[in-house]
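call fold(seq) -> tokens
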Amino acid sequence: MKKTIVLMLFLSVLSFGSRSFEVIEDILEARFDFEYSIISDSRYDVRGLDYDLTISYGSAYMEIEIDSMFGGSTWKKLSPSVIEEFISTLVDIIRKEVNNPDLRVIVYVKSDRELGNDQILFNKTY
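ret:
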């Protein structure tokens, strides 16, 4: 009986083990939430950005959620060059922190709607 309990405890510890980049993901998400919570050009600004970052198998997946009440419709009015520069900055930070300049980063931006389906506003691989 004791062996069974010890074996079950050992297996549960292994199943909840953390991934190698989990700490970096959390740090970068907090940094992005703090430093890059607003994207704006000269006329429009989008607030309420929420970041989710996952790094695994040589790729990074970044999801940026925009609260529909704070700028889901305004995103389409932003200048494409401002959007590209903003996301390129985030991608450069991710590559620098992971210490892999060739890291493939897949970025998608979606509008988080309270009612109805979420809408993907931007999707690109860097």
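Helices lie at 2-15, 22-35, 80-98.
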